[in-house]
Amino acid sequence: MKNFYEQVYDLVVRIPAGRVMTYGQIAVLLGKPSAARAVGYALHLTPAGVRIPWQRVINSQGKISPRGASDIVHEPQLQRLLLEQEGVHFDLQGKIDLQKYLWEPDAMSQYEW
């Protein structure tokens, strides 16, 4: 059985370009509804050489979460740029319309991760 971080990675790689999921949504789908922060930490600790579309995971308000000063690789400006390149639009307050861009995987596919 895969550990929680591996399950996070398996789910995040399935998010289609131009769509997003929230940290909490991922935690719920993986059976750990109180583990939204752990999802963020898993993405922060993505192993070198592993390509994960981390930019597609945002907070429940439809915004990019602020990062620590030491997090150069996953900085908010880069995340926004990558999402915009995929066709995701932000409003003037920096929010993404979750009704339009939120990806909700098919319930039956949950058993695959």
UniProtKB/TrEMBL annotation:
Keywords: DNA damage, Methyltransferase, Transferase. SUPFAM superfamilies: Methylated DNA-protein cysteine methyltransferase, C-terminal domain. It comes from the Bacteria. GO terms for molecular function: methyltransferase activity. GO terms for biological process: DNA repair; methylation. Residues 3-88 form the Methylated-DNA-[protein]-cysteine S-methyltransferase DNA binding domain. NCBIfam families: ogt. This is 6-O-methylguanine DNA methyltransferase, DNA binding domain. It comes from Vecturithrix granuli. The lineage of its organism: Bacteria, Candidatus Moduliflexota, Candidatus Vecturitrichia, Candidatus Vecturitrichales, Candidatus Vecturitrichaceae.
